[in-house]
Amino acid sequence: MKSLLCSIALLLAVGCATTPEKKYANTSSAELKLRHSQLSQALEGEKGQPDIEWIKPIWFRGPSRSDRIKEKEEIEFELLRRYKAGDQEAKLPVFSQ
Q: For residue 17, what is the DSSP state?
Protein backbone atom coordinates (compact mmCIF):
# COMPACT_ATOMS: atom_id res chain seq x y z
CA MET A 1 0.00 0.00 0.00
CA LYS A 2 2.80 2.40 0.92
CA SER A 3 4.61 1.79 -2.37
CA LEU A 4 1.36 2.36 -4.27
CA LEU A 5 0.89 5.75 -2.62
CA CYS A 6 4.51 6.68 -3.33
CA SER A 7 4.08 5.67 -6.97
CA ILE A 8 0.94 7.78 -7.33
CA ALA A 9 2.66 10.78 -5.72
CA LEU A 10 5.63 10.37 -8.06
CA LEU A 11 3.40 10.18 -11.13
CA LEU A 12 1.54 13.32 -10.04
CA ALA A 13 4.78 15.19 -9.45
CA VAL A 14 6.17 14.21 -12.84
CA GLY A 15 2.89 15.02 -14.58
CA CYS A 16 2.71 18.46 -13.01
CA ALA A 17 6.27 19.44 -13.93
CA THR A 18 6.34 22.53 -16.12
CA THR A 19 8.56 22.49 -19.17
CA PRO A 20 9.71 25.75 -20.79
CA GLU A 21 7.54 24.96 -23.84
CA LYS A 22 4.41 24.82 -21.68
CA LYS A 23 5.47 27.68 -19.43
CA TYR A 24 5.99 30.11 -22.32
CA ALA A 25 3.47 28.66 -24.80
CA ASN A 26 1.13 31.66 -24.62
CA THR A 27 3.88 34.29 -24.56
CA SER A 28 4.82 36.01 -27.81
CA SER A 29 8.40 35.97 -29.08
CA ALA A 30 8.58 39.76 -28.70
CA GLU A 31 7.58 39.52 -25.03
CA LEU A 32 10.13 36.76 -24.44
CA LYS A 33 12.86 38.84 -26.09
CA LEU A 34 11.92 41.82 -23.90
CA ARG A 35 12.07 39.70 -20.73
CA HIS A 36 15.39 38.22 -21.87
CA SER A 37 16.77 41.72 -22.36
CA GLN A 38 15.55 42.80 -18.91
CA LEU A 39 17.11 39.77 -17.25
CA SER A 40 20.39 40.23 -19.13
CA GLN A 41 20.66 43.87 -18.08
CA ALA A 42 19.81 43.10 -14.46
CA LEU A 43 22.32 40.25 -14.28
CA GLU A 44 25.03 42.36 -15.94
CA GLY A 45 24.40 45.22 -13.49
CA GLU A 46 24.86 43.06 -10.44
CA LYS A 47 28.09 41.33 -11.42
CA GLY A 48 30.48 41.13 -8.51
CA GLN A 49 27.78 41.83 -5.94
CA PRO A 50 26.96 39.19 -3.33
CA ASP A 51 23.62 37.43 -3.66
CA ILE A 52 22.86 37.29 0.04
CA GLU A 53 19.20 37.98 0.78
CA TRP A 54 19.56 39.23 4.34
CA ILE A 55 22.00 41.97 3.23
CA LYS A 56 19.56 43.48 0.74
CA PRO A 57 16.92 45.96 1.88
CA ILE A 58 13.47 44.40 1.94
CA TRP A 59 12.28 46.44 -1.09
CA PHE A 60 15.16 45.02 -3.23
CA ARG A 61 14.45 41.40 -2.44
CA GLY A 62 13.08 39.16 -5.14
CA PRO A 63 14.10 36.07 -7.03
CA SER A 64 17.67 34.99 -6.37
CA ARG A 65 20.38 35.43 -8.98
CA SER A 66 20.34 31.71 -9.73
CA ASP A 67 16.55 31.86 -10.31
CA ARG A 68 17.01 34.77 -12.73
CA ILE A 69 19.78 32.93 -14.57
CA LYS A 70 17.56 29.85 -14.83
CA GLU A 71 14.67 31.94 -16.20
CA LYS A 72 17.00 33.60 -18.74
CA GLU A 73 18.24 30.20 -19.92
CA GLU A 74 14.68 28.85 -20.20
CA ILE A 75 13.72 31.85 -22.33
CA GLU A 76 16.81 31.37 -24.53
CA PHE A 77 15.91 27.70 -24.97
CA GLU A 78 12.32 28.55 -25.94
CA LEU A 79 13.39 31.29 -28.37
CA LEU A 80 15.95 28.96 -29.95
CA ARG A 81 13.29 26.26 -30.30
CA ARG A 82 10.95 28.76 -31.99
CA TYR A 83 13.75 30.08 -34.23
CA LYS A 84 14.63 26.57 -35.38
CA ALA A 85 10.93 25.98 -36.07
CA GLY A 86 10.96 28.96 -38.46
CA ASP A 87 9.97 31.94 -36.30
CA GLN A 88 12.39 34.66 -37.48
CA GLU A 89 11.12 37.06 -34.81
CA ALA A 90 12.52 34.73 -32.12
CA LYS A 91 16.14 35.18 -33.26
CA LEU A 92 18.57 36.43 -30.63
CA PRO A 93 22.01 37.80 -31.60
CA VAL A 94 23.71 34.91 -29.77
CA PHE A 95 22.13 32.44 -32.22
CA SER A 96 24.41 33.75 -34.99
CA GLN A 97 27.59 32.90 -33.10
A: P
What are the tens digits of pLDDT across the range 32-81? 999 999 999 988 887 766 666 666 666 666 777 888 999 999 999 999 99
- Considering only CA atoms, which of 56, 16, 62, 19 is closest in space to residue 39? 62
Q: For 97, how many CA atoms within 13 A lie in the half-sphere containing its CB?
A: 3
Contact 12, 48 (CB under 8 A): no
Give the global pTM.
0.68
Which one is predicted more confidently, 27 or 95?
A: 27
Count other C-beta atoms under 10 Å from residue 83's C-beta: 16
Q: How far apart are CA 63 and CA 41, in angstroms?
A: 15
Burial 3-21 (b: 16+ CB within 10 A, else e): eeeeeeeeeeeeeeeeebe
